[in-house]
Amino acid sequence: MSRPARRAAPPLTLPPWLAHALRAQRGPVPWSAVTRGALAAGPLLLAAVLAGRVSLGVVAAIAAMLAGINDRPGSRRASVKRLGVPALAGAAGLFVGTYAGEHIGAVPLTLLLTGLGLFAGGISAVGPVASGAGTQLLVAAAIGAGMPLPEAGWQRAVAYLAGAVWLLALRLALPTPGSLAGDFRFDGERDAVAAVYDAVGELLEAAGTEQATARRAALTAALDHAQDALTGPRLRRYASSSAERRLHAQYAAALPLAEAATALAWAGEPVPARAWEGPRRLAAAVRDNTHTGPLPAPSRSAAALRALDDALLHAAEAFDRGRGDSDDLHTRRRTAKDLRRAVFGAGGREYGLRVGLCFGASVAIAQALHHAQWYGQHEHWYWLPATAVFLVKPDLGPLASRVLCRAAGTVLGALLFAGFAAVLPRPEGLIALVALSGALIPVATRHFAAQTAVVTVLVLALVMVGGEPQASASRIGETLLACAIVLVVGHLPMPGQRGGGVRQRVAAANRAAYAYLAHVLRESGAHVVGQSDVQVLRESGAQVLGQSDVQALRESEADVPRESGDHTLRVSGVKVLRESGADVLGQSDAQVLREPDANVRRESGDQVPRESGGQPLRKSRPMARRDPDARTPLPSDASDVPNGPGPARSGDRALRWTLRREAYRALAEARTAIALAAAELPALARHTEGAEEVVATLERLVDTTTACAVHLDDSGRLTPWHTAHLAELLEELAQERHRVGLRGPEASDVPLAG
């Protein structure tokens, strides 16, 4: 008699907060950043020691270290803002903290720094650069108030700026190893644009598989990175060199490719291998700064494949033209209203309260311990509030994960430094340790515990060079105390609804998705639903466009001709589109959405072929020079390029791509915020439950809208398949928003872009 089979033990599943703490980023070693790190803090400290200004060298090295933490992959132009803005904020914080610590008492100083924490927390909700600025503002203020130095406040601020500017100069001047194609000043932009074409090819390859959703998210990330790389600060309004204009044109040429690839992935059917060979050859051409050569022409048997074919031809022409003439990066500057909404909205208020309370409490406790001589011979009390700043910021990671990693990293770093301090000669050995730690920071940023360990070694070496005795034991105690403060304050009840940061991101994604949907439907005057379908959409809670959308679209499209109409529709009590002159919602498809047939088949022209057959190779530049009559263009060909010959269509297309980019970017930001919130302890994670489902439905809505845009370009109207999908998604989205208590877009808060 055989024994019954033993059941396999279920796999061990870690709680999200612990799994996040153990997760580390992967990737190749950034040797260029490692080189800059080695040449930053260590040489600055050495120069200061040789010049007899050790304390100023310590300040400059701290600034270079903090700038090194922000030194991430990207373009040189983008690094000016990413490194420069936080450095300016840090210099201001050091100036304020120094004079406040010297001239006011403990209680007024605590109140001042608490208010500074409220301000820094609020502005941190604006975005990554603002968050870095808020971090350096508070850390430098704590150092200025809690690290007595002989120099005046303005001298410290200048030294701080000098340290950050030194690293920024290294970032701008040193070429990236291995980047020898073309002007090395634009190697970051070139890599970013090439990554977009690679992501398009990977998405086309994954069409019809389970990896399609992840590849579409990777394409969004690549487009976001390229957009950031190309939109850095500049002295002139437009790109000044032909190499940069060429990169701008190559990026713009990738947008219709990304749109067609998204539509093909949305169809859920595999595409021929020839379809993704073209984007990959374009990626190689961008990296090598060469011509594209012949490109495989995909089949033209479906709307999305025809759009892909047209986009490939236009991309080849843009590549082989030899110069770029497009400065439109399809991005929109954030207005003062957008910034005010981010700072004073629910997310900004919650962020500011959390940071202000933690920073203020840590300053008060640190001063109390300092005056009680808990530190012994140490005169510096900055470590406790500075540690709290790095722990409390929710956009940098979940609270529990950062507390665990900070505690473990500090203990490891302090023990390592105690061992190094016992054997290294002073000061030359400590200066070498500072240089080594600076070189390790770009690699250590992949995990917060490793970054903390490296930073702990570097800072302890700096302060010992400055004359402070070995302080490993006290730093461990202060770090553990800061962890306890942050955990307690982070779980205190807050005014209003918790999870404000996540809700604000989801609301921004919701507004951006609806603005994109409304524009796509208006762009061609397509009839989607009619007067008789008001009840259908009212029951689904869908609001297609509000009054503020009408005004925003009118202002942004003042120069774009559009069809006139006088349709009025009320959805959930909101008047839509009468004043805009847009014929978005008509009557011809009323029956389609009233009785959507689950078994509706797409038109024969929408079937994606599974085999490409023997399609000819498309020559890039030689074909572009041939007789225009050699190829019969489609009606949409003239307007597929942002600066194409059709003024009305090209203007609409440019705005559409801008809205699509903003919708996908807002969705990616919401996804990131939700992932971080889900990795909090259950007491905090429960406040954002259900938000992930809303964002997933919004992503499907934007994907469907993209497929509709491609089909409208090809045929001028939507099929029952598309309209049924839109109606289903709008109804599903309304139900999910209701379950989690999120509002839909309303006339008072629906801008054109989130």
The helicity comes to 55-70%
Strand order of the largest sheet: 1-4
The largest sheet is: 2 strands, antiparallel
Number of strands: 4
* Range of strand content: under 5%
Instruction: Give the overall shape.
Output: globular
CA-based gyration radius: 28 Å
Distance between the first and last residues' Cα: 68 Å
What is the mean pLDDT? 77
Assembly level: single chain
Strand and helix layout:
Elements: H1 16-22, H2 31-38, H3 41-51, H4 54-70, H5 76-103, H6 106-124, H7 128-146, H8 153-173, H9 187-206, H10 212-230, H11 242-267, H12 273-288, E1 295-296, H13 303-320, H14 336-344, H15 346-371, H16 383-392, H17 399-423, H18 428-444, H19 448-465, H20 472-490, H21 500-523, H22 534-540, H23 547-556, E2 569-571, E3 574-576, H24 590-594, E4 617-618, H25 621-624, H26 647-678, H27 682-685, H28 691-715, H29 720-740
Antiparallel strand pairs: 1-4, 2-3
Descriptive overview:
The chain has 754 residues and is an all-alpha fold. It has 29 helices and four strands. A hairpin with a 2-residue loop joins strand 2 (569-571) and strand 3. The longest helix has 32 residues, at 647-678. The model is unreliable at 526-648 and 746-754 (pLDDT under 50).
